[in-house]
Structures are given as C-alpha cells and as structure tokens.
Amino acid sequence: MKKVLVINANPKSTSLCKSLAERYISVAKEHHTVEQINIGDLNFEISLDEGYDRVTALEPDLLEFQQKIQWSEHVVIISPVWWGTIPAKFKGVIDRTFLPGFSFKYVEGKSYPEKLLKGRTSELIITLDSPPLWYKYVKGNAIYKQLKHSILDFSGIKNISATYFGPVIHSKSDHRKDWLNKVAKLARKIS
C-alpha cells in the first residue's frame, strides 16, 4: 500500500483532467491511500515577486500542498498543455512551494543543490489539443522537460512514466472512454 497524491493541474472547474483524476483516484483507492489536490480550488498569491530574496509567508492552501507532497510516496500529475507547457496557476503553486529548504537545499562548495524530496516517484498524465507525437517530436515536449527535469528531478522525485492523451479538442466520447480506461489501468499498476 502506497501513499498516493493525485494533482489535477487544470484550474478549470470541469475538465477532462478532472475526470481523469477522479477515475485514477477511484481505482487507486482500492489498494492505496490517496489524497487529491485540485489546483483550481487553491487560494493563494500566484506570483513569487521577490524570488528567493525575501521570504513570503505561505497561505494555508500552499502549506497543505507542501504537507501532502511530504506525505506522499507517489505523485500523479494530471495536466493539460497550455501554450506548450503547464497552466500558470500550477506553475504558481510550484514557484511558491518548491522552495529552498522544502524541495532542495544549496550546499556550500557544491555545484548542485541537495534534493530534499528523494524517495518519491511520480507519473505524468498529459492532455493536449494536438497529436501527442507531433507535440513530443516536432514541438519539443516542453511540458515533460519542465516537469521531469526542471522540477521533479531537481527535487529528487523520480518520474517513472508519462502518458499523453490527445487531441482532446475534437475527441469523441469513445476516445474519452478509452482514455479513462487507460488511466484506470495506470492506477492499477502502482507498485
């Protein structure tokens, strides 16, 4: 049994990402302890105006986000591709919470910071309005590079898979049912 955190990174109140998250959760709960975060439900100041130069107090929703990340053993990020990468509100959550002392720590005399979230795994479930192969191989797969390399690896979270669903914009109900079924299979594979 694992502690699984499912993050719906789509800020919209209704979306395919939310449906995918709900399906993943319903199946994962059969064998694991699951917590959920819907980015759209969080209330916080999105901008880290002074960067790391000045400590900005975290709002209660961001403190809870950090607590759930620390609690988790496996993090599932379900995100749409907006303008090539993650939605601004999700980026704001990362900017505000993945801070020095929480997700990494600078070490004097070393080129690379210490990774403070080691021991966790993650998987990415991505929705997009373009064909996944075109996005990955022609457009450069920016969302994967940003999440896996710049955020997760940097913090010590090992990403184990990335699954893409698209194009969503003109998808038929049978495509969406197939995607929901595939998400259920992914939730059954958590080990």
Automatic annotation (TrEMBL):
Residues 2-182 form the Flavodoxin-like fold domain. Keywords: Oxidoreductase. InterPro entries: Flavodoxin_fold, Flavoprotein-like_sf, NAD(P)H_dehydrogenase_qn. Gene3D superfamilies: 3.40.50.360. The keyword Transport does not apply. The keyword Oxidoreductase applies. It comes from the Bacteria. Belongs to the NAD(P)H dehydrogenase (quinone) family. This is NAD(P)H dehydrogenase. It comes from Vibrio diazotrophicus. The lineage of its organism: Bacteria, Pseudomonadati, Pseudomonadota, Gammaproteobacteria, Vibrionales.
